[in-house]
Specification:
The protein is α+β, with helices and mostly antiparallel strands. The radius of gyration is 26 Å and the shape is elongated. It has an 8-stranded antiparallel barrel with strand order 1-4-5-6-7-8-9-10. Helix content is 20%, strand content 59%. The chain has one domain: Porin (Beta Barrel), CATH 2.40.160.
């Protein structure tokens, strides 16, 4: 009887070791490529939703704002289950209906503009470095550091050189790090749903779907 028991135990161990080392099993458990599509909320987008007035030095400004969620596309490459590196692109549209805008131009002349619309497009491109604290068949909990640049396209309804110069200095590009923590739930082997909380650009909260292959 002990002889047959030893044979049975060795057989189970061999089968388990074979299944763990099988290429098909590894392929099911770990994918090195990930593509994600997200919606996102940003600090700038939330600020544009606030109707307000601003008085700063010689500037005076009243507006009603609106914004759409940012649309993001990302790609990540996994070196192993704990480390990945990727790229993220983001685009967000915003709009301001300006009741009045008053400021002094470069020649110290006071300029006033009434009832103009300003369309704003905010784009971001950056790299991200991810450390996956938990990454198993169902869950992916990670922290992320991003480095990227923000690009603004400002389109006022009025063509004026003083106004263009003022808007360019009011919306500078940035190159700053950002930090995030996120979670993905793998609803299928190749598909997941997730969210991320972040400090910095291009978002404070992102949500979306990802595919692994």
């Amino acid at each position: 009887m002990p002889k047959y028991l030893i044979i049975l135990l060795l057989s189970v161990c061999f089968t388990n070791a074979h299944s763990q080392n099988s290429p098909e099993k590894k392929s099911e458990e770990f994918k090195v490529h990930q593509v994600s599509v997200n919606g996102a909320l940003s600090t700038a987008g939330l600020a544009f939703k606030i109707d307000g007035k601003l008085n700063w030095k010689t500037d005076s400004f009243s507006y009603k704002g609106s914004s759409n969620p940012a649309i993001q596309i990302g790609y990540d490459y996994y070196f192993n289950k704990n480390i990945s590196i990727g790229i993220l692109g983001s685009s967000q549209t915003m709009n301001m209906q300006v009741n009045y805008l008053i400021f002094k131009n470069a020649n110290e002349l006071t300029r006033r503009y009434n009832d103009i619309d300003i369309k704003v497009n905010r784009k971001y491109v950056g790299l991200r470095f991810n450390y996956h604290i938990v990454n198993n068949a169902k869950s992916d909990l990670y922290t992320s550091i991003r480095f990227g640049s923000v690009f603004w396209k400002i389109s006022p309804s009025l063509t004026d050189s003083d106004l263009d110069e003022k808007l360019e200095t009011s919306f500078p590009g940035t190159l700053l790090p950002a930090f995030g923590i996120g979670y993905k739930y793998k609803i299928k082997e190749r598909v997941g749903l997730g969210f991320e909380l972040s400090v910095g650009t291009p978002h404070v909260f992102a949500y979306g779907i990802d595919a692994r292959f």
